[in-house]
Amino acid sequence: xxxxxxxxxxxxxxxxxxxxxxxxxxxxxxxxxxxxxxxxxxxxxxxxxxxxxxxxxxxxxxxxxxxxxxxxxxxxxxxxxxxxxxxxxxxxxxxxxxxxxxxxxxxxxxxxxxxxxxxxxxxxxxxxxxxxxxxxxxxxxxxxxxxxxxxxxxxxxxxxxxxxxxxxxxxxxxxxxxxxxxxxxxxxxxxxxxxxxxxxxxxxxxxxxxxxxxxxxxxxxxxxxxxxxxxxxxxxxxxxxxxxxxxxxxxxxxxxxxxxxxxxxxxxxxxxxxxxxxxxxxxxxxxxxxxxxxxxxxxxxxxxxxxxxxxxxxxxxxxxxxxxxxxxxxxxxxxxxxxxxxxxxxxxxxxxxxxxxxxxxxxxxxxxxxxxxxxxxxxxxxxxxxxxxxxxxxxxxxxxxxxxxxxxxxxxxxxxxxxxxxxxxxxxxxxxxxxxxxxxxxxxxxxxxxxxxxxxxxxxxxxxxxxxxxxxxxxxxxxxxxxxxxxxxxxxxxxxxxxxxxxxxxxxxxxxxxxxxxxxxxxxxxxxxxxxxxxxxxxxxxxxxxxxxxxxxxxxxxxxxxxxxxxxxxxxxxxxxxxxxxxxxxxxxxxxxxxxxxxxxxxxxxxxxxxxxxxxxxxxxxxxxxxxxxxxxxxxxxxxxxxxxxxxxxxxxxxxxxxxxxxxxxxxxxxxxxxxxxxxxxxxxxxxxxxxxxxxxxxxxxxxxxxxxxxxxxxxxxxxxxxxxxxxxxxxxxxxxxxxxxxxxxxxxxxxxxxxxxxxxxxxxxxxxxxxxxxxxxxxxxxxxxxxxxxxxx
Length: 794
Known about the structure:
It holds the Pfam family Glyco_hydro_44. By secondary structure, the chain is α+β, with helices and mostly antiparallel strands.
C-alpha cells in the first residue's frame, strides 16, 4: 500500500517563494526560518467511501489531454447544444452569438453519420471516456444549415448590437432603447422538436455505437440550463420555464430516452446555479422584471404550494417512479459558478487570488458565508445531498458545469486541485469542468496531480479516507486509497503566500519506517510536475515544509505483506427486536497481525458513524433509537489494536416492531431554520380519557437546546425535554388538541425529536416533520453578473 499526499498552498504567488534542495527533496524542517503550519492527519481506518472517477470530467477536452488523463467522462454541453439538430449537424448559438444558425463543416452526404456529435462520441470511445450528451428539451431544434438568425435587423429594426463582422443583419434582439425585441417568428431559425426527436437520436446512437450497456453513450443531460431559456434562447422560448413545464418536459423527454435505451442514465434539471435550487425559470424571469417583494413570494412558487423549485422537482420525479415503476431521473444535476467578484472571470490581482482560494469553501463549509450577492452559507454538495435524501433518495449528484477561473495561472490550478479534492471527499458522483484548459496551462496540471502525476498513470486513490487539517484555509488535505495496489493517497493544498512547516500523521496503512515518493507542482516551475527526493517516514508520518503556491503529492510505502486486518465477522443475527431497538449477535473475527480490539455496528453502508460499538471479546450489541415498523440493514466491522478494520460482515435486514398502542398523537413541525437556530411547534392530541393536567415528554436526537417556549412550562435535562401544561390549557378532553412551541438552537444536524410521551405513556407521531438537514436557502435577486458569459473557447 502507498500513500499519496497532495499539498497546495493558497495565497498570492510571489517570486519564487518556495525553494527546493538540489534533486528536488523537501527542505528539512527549520523552525527558526519557516512559519509553523497547521497539523495534518490522515486515518485510513475511518471515513472510507468510494470516489467515483466521473468527478474528474471535462467538457470538450481535446483528445491528447483526454488520453493523457485517462479522462473518465467528457460532456457535450452548453447553450449551443440546446437546439443542436443531429440530422443536419447544425445548431443555433442563441444569445451566445446573435441567435444565429451555425453548422459544422463535416459534409452532408451521409448525415447524420459523420456529424460533429458522432465525432465527439468517437473520440471518447478511442480514449475510453464515457459520454455525457446534451439532448434538446425546449421544444425546438435548428431548421436548416443556413445563415438565418432570430432577430434580423431588416425585419425587426435597429438593435443595440449586431454581428458586424460576419452577418451584419443579425442583431442581439435588444432595441436601441434597451427593451427586448418581441413577437419574432421562431420558424425563421427553428422547427418544433419534441420527445420523438430525442428518441430518434438515441436510437440512431444505439445503432451506430451500441447502447449504454454495450459501450455506447452512457449519460444524457436533459438540455442545458432550462431556467435561462427566456434569456439564452428567447427567440424561441421567450417565457420563463415554469414548474409544470419542467415536470412535463422531463417526464416526456427522459421517458423517451429510457424507451430507446433502458440502460442510459439521465441528468436533470441542469440549472445554472444557486438560484436554480430556489426558483423556476418563470419566477426568475418574472422577479427580474418586477423586482421588490417578488423574490420573497414569487407567483409560480405560490401556485405550487409555496415549495422551492428543487425539492418540488425531485418530488415529481419520485412520483413518476411510484406511478410507473420506472426511474427516469438518475442524477440531480446543477451547475455552479463562483459568484464572488472576479473569481470566474479570471482576475489575478492579489485580492481576487485570495478570494478564489477561499471561495471553494462554498462547496461544503457550513460556516462560510458566500462573499457575493448570495450572502449566506451555500454548502452546495451537502445541500444537494440533503435535497435528494429528503425528496428522492437514491438519486446521484452531478455538477456538469463549474469553473473557478484563472486556469492559465498557478492560482487557478491551486483552486482546481482543491475543488477536485472536495468533490472526492464530499461524495459527488459526476462533475465536468466547463471549457477545458490547454494541456500546457496550470489548470491541466491540477488534473494531472489526480489522474497522472508521474506520466505513467499514477493516480489519486478511489476510496476516500479521513483527512483533516487544523486550518483548511492554509493547508487543505485529502486522502484516498487505491484499490489496485492498495496505495494510500493524500492530497494537501497549501493556501498561503509563504512556506509552511507542518507535521503529517498517518494512522493505519503504512509501515513504521521507509520513505515516501514525492511529486510537486508549483509556482517555481509551472511547466512540469517534479519528482523530488523521497521523504523519510517516522512511525508512518513526517514533518516537512510545504512551499507556497504549490501542490505536493506523497506516495507512502505500503504495509508489509505480513500485516493483515481481521477477517470479517460472522453474519449477524437479530433477536429481541422491539419497536425502537434490536439486539444483534455475530460470530467472532479471526485476528490478523494484531488482536481484535472492538466491533462496530453500522446501519446501511460503513461510510458513516457506527450506531453501536462493543469491546472484544463481546460479540453482541443492542442498537437503540430505532423507528417503529421500519426496515434496517446492519453490518458489523471488526477493528484491531493497530487500527486496521476488517471487511464488513454479511448484512442482516431487520424490521422493527410496530409501536405499542398510543394514548396520544403529536405533530412536530419546524417553521423556520436558519442554520444555527430554529422555531418549532408541537400539536398534541389526546386519544385517551379526559385529562385534568398533562406533561409532554420527548428526546432530542442531536445537539439541540430549548432557548424559550410558550403555552407550557419547559424544562430540559441533557437531551430529555418536558413540557407541563400552562394551567389554562390543562384540561384535554378525548380527541382534543393543544399546541406548544419553542425557539431552539443547535449545532450539527437538526433532526426531529423522538420518544414522545404524554403523562409517561407513549405517543405516536404520524405527522412529525423533520427539520431540514440543511436550512432552506434564502432566495433574492442575483447580482448583475450572476450568470457569467461562457461561450466555449475554440
